[in-house]
Design brief:
Elements (H helix, E strand, L loop, with lengths): L7 H81 L20 E2 L17 E4 L5 E3 L4 E7 L11 E7 L4 E10 L6 E2 L4 E5 L9 E7 L7 E2 L1 H7 L5
Antiparallel strand pairs: 1-2, 2-9, 3-8, 4-5, 4-7, 5-6, 6-8, 6-9, 9-10
């Protein structure tokens, strides 16, 4: 059997070729490994980014809910405070309407009454007498306009002394006589309860008092029962 001997040049070439093939395999393997590693890393990066975005969205949603809850609580508090303030605000009482008719004097003693007979009068008594001290405030019994005011009964005669006659809207008249001082003038408008004079003892008088009449005209001789008239208008004397 003969022994084959390889040419040194050919051997060298074969070794080189083998080395080159090994290097290519190594390079190809490394490339494959790198590629495989790259494929494994990419999904991790994408998943992490999505998680961060989701977390940010959740936090923004929670922050919006907190803000909305705070706004709702503030609105409820404001409404409660307003309701309490409204409840605590005192309601003004309705203004009481002024009375249409009042007593001509506040404190008095009734003496001679309407249609009473006696030596003091040529005919029966034409009004209601209120015994009061001289200087007692005399008030208009109802709203109206002064049509007589002065001595001599304001034109009705000296027996009345200083006197006032007021015309009222309902077509009646009120007279106030034996006054010590007159505080209104003819043509002046007066309100019910307004002071118009001070009581006195002038004219045909047996003592300090106010003589009060209700008339159907401004003149003497048309008097009606003043106590009955006042009662029909809610005033008792």
């Amino acid at each position: 059997m003969s022994k084959r001997v390889m040419n040194p040049a050919t051997r060298t070439a074969a070794v080189a070729l083998a080395a080159a093939g090994l290097g290519a395999s190594l390079v190809a393997g490394a490339g494959s490994a790198f590629a495989a590693e790259g494929k494994a890393v990419a999904p991790v990066a994408v998943t992490a980014s999505a998680a961060v975005a989701a977390q940010a969205e959740t936090q923004a949603h929670v922050a919006a809910q907190v803000k909305a809850a705070a706004a709702k609580a503030a609105a409820q508090k404001a409404a409660t405070v307003k309701a309490v303030a409204v409840k605590a605000t005192p309601v003004k009482a309705a203004k009481k309407a002024a009375p249409s008719w009042v007593k001509p004097v506040a404190t008095y003693t009734l003496t001679a009454s309407y249609n009473q007979g006696g030596a003091m009068w040529a005919h029966k008594h034409s009004g209601q007498d209120f015994a009061v001290p001289v200087g007692t405030p005399v008030k208009a019994a109802g709203m109206g306009t002064v049509v007589k005011a002065g001595p001599n009964g304001g034109g009705d005669g000296p027996a009345y002394g200083n006197a006032i006659v007021v015309k009222h809207a309902n077509g009646t008249y009120s007279q106030y006589a034996h006054l010590s001082k007159i505080k209104v003038n003819v043509g002046q408008k007066v309100a019910a309860g307004q002071q118009i004079a001070l009581s006195g003892n002038t004219g045909n008088s047996s003592g300090p008092h106010l003589h009060f009449e209700i008339r159907t005209t401004p003149n003497y001789g048309s008097a009606v029962n003043p106590a009955a008239f006042l009662r029909t208008h809610g005033v008792s004397i």
